[in-house]
Write a structure and sequence with these properties.
The chain is of the alpha/beta class. It is built from 14 helices and twelve strands. Helix content is 41%, strand content 16%. The strands form three sheets. The chain has a seven-stranded mixed beta sheet with strand order 2-1-3-4-5-11-10, sandwiched between helices. A three-stranded parallel beta sheet has the order 7-6-8, sandwiched between helices.
């Protein structure tokens, strides 16, 4: 683990979060008296962007649903999306402080830039749960996926796909945005697996995680290295993988090298079916959203969260932050049905468009 992520032995595990939600059942406020005053809380939810499909499709509705369950329908979620604008997000936090929300769940656009706003929330007596990205400042709790595990899963999958070709060419590393602390962890963990086993010809920190920026980076890499010399691409997420595929096709590459991803976006799953993307990391958003909602509701009511957490995490500014980290799952052609289909994330009909009918049939996705 890196210097900012220190594990401790705690009996709870990520999978138990959903079970504990059911056990809690949305009790009352301080003293768990079940009163309307205890359940009628306002939860401020701030998500970072809408370029990645997951936030609007999964995170927001899941958190809203869990807050409703925990507060017996009396809690209110006040929502804002910063659309990748850190200044706008700070303004949104200020607005929620003015509205006197009882707790904030913040997925930071920029983990450093948000620290001052988090401090202002604390000064106003509003607890803060950092969601998906480890925000700096005096946060009270944090939930995300195990980011180092994600980077390792991606890198190991790439090595497995390369096999003997690992020594025959170079790979390109397409990391995420430097403003996202998760990207730093994915990158470090991937390097720990890849360094010494492959030659990294070009590496980029992709501005704002944008697919079009990944396309530009990949185009530059192919120009510098030669399209015949790139044997694999480490892509930190599915959106950038799509941009990478676009660059490869535009350069006339017909036999695509293995490309990694993350988030199991529909377009990414479809590329995996088509053989254009090797893998993604499927992150079950329900446990993460459930953990955020449960910790937020408990903190808003002045209750302890010791029984919810499974980790203590150090940020650059705050030590021993109570946290829930959720493991990821390697998604390939072999387990699409048993993961995103069986979990109800996508239907076979959504995945298997007319263009993909034959490919879907090959892997039993009918």
């Amino acid at each position: 683990m890196n210097a900012h992520l220190r594990r401790v032995v705690i009996s709870a595990v990520a999978g138990s979060v959903v079970a504990s939600l059911a056990a809690c059942g949305g009790g009352g406020g301080e003293g768990a008296d079940g009163s309307e005053k205890g359940d009628a809380i306002k939860v401020g939810l701030l998500l970072p962007e809408d370029q990645t499909a997951r936030y609007e499709k999964f995170d927001k509705p899941l958190i809203e649903k869990e807050v409703g369950k925990l507060t017996r329908g009396k809690g209110e979620v006040v929502y804002a999306n910063a659309k990748q604008d850190a200044v706008a997000q700070n303004s949104q936090i200020a607005a929620m402080i003015a509205k006197k929300v009882d707790v904030l769940i913040i997925d930071a656009v920029d983990s450093k830039a948000v620290a001052g706003s988090i401090a202002k929330a604390k000064e106003a007596g509003i607890p803060v749960v950092a969601y998906d990205r480890l925000a700096e400042g005096p946060i009270d709790a944090y939930t995300s996926f195990d980011n180092e595990d994600v980077g390792q899963l991606q890198a190991k999958a790439l090595l497995d796909a390369l096999g003997a070709k690992a020594d025959s060419g170079q790979i390109v590393m397409m990391n995420g945005s430097v403003t996202d602390p998760n990207a730093k962890q994915f990158k470090a963990a991937a390097h720990a697996v890849l360094d010494g086993k492959v030659t990294i010809g070009k590496e980029y920190d992709t501005v704002d995680w944008k697919p079009e920026n990944a396309t530009a980076n990949m185009t530059a890499a192919l120009s510098a290295l030669g399209k015949g010399r790139v044997v694999g691409v480490y892509s930190a997420n599915d959106g950038m993988a799509g941009g990478i595929v676009a660059a490869l096709k535009a350069a006339g590459v017909t036999s695509l090298p293995p490309i990694t991803g993350q988030d199991a976006e529909l377009a990414g799953v479809q590329r995996i079916v088509a053989g254009e993307q090797h893998m993604s990391v499927y992150k079950r958003y329900a446990p993460e959203a459930a953990a955020a909602a449960e910790m937020a509701v408990a903190l808003a009511k002045g209750q302890k969260i010791d029984g919810i957490i499974n980790e203590l995490v150090d940020s650059p500014t705050t030590k021993r932050v109570p946290s829930v980290l959720v493991p990821g799952v390697v998604l390939t052609r072999s387990n699409i049905k048993s993961t995103v289909v069986d979990d109800g994330v996508y239907t076979v009909e959504e995945i298997c468009t007319d263009r993909l009918r034959a490919a879907c049939a090959e892997i039993g996705l009918t």
